[in-house]
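Before the break, one more example. Copy the sequence into your notebook; we will annotate it together after we see the structure.
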Amino acid sequence: MFSTTTNTIEGRPVREYLGIVTGEVIVGANLFRDLFASITDIVGGRSGKYEDVLARARKEAIAEMEAEATRLGGNAVVGVDLDYEVLGQNGSMLMVSASGTVVTL
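Here is what the structure looks like once it is written out:
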């Protein structure tokens, strides 16, 4: 599966558009507070542990989106958009979502 933020893939014309696919991952903010409480790798205000959790959530959202694209019979997702949202009372959760258009090339 090939995913890209662009609407086309140079040299690979789209044969068929199959629809919109999404992937969402929600993680509790308490996880982030726990990570901040035990951080040992803060350098210049950055937290490697916090970034690792966000990276993992992003990868899982993309993988979920690509799995849905495969189920629809596509071999690529174009126009991918990644979003991060705070959810829940007092911003207690973070959602990472990936969406795009599944196509066959």
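The two ends are 11 Å apart (CA to CA). The mean pLDDT is 84. Try to locate both features in your own notes.
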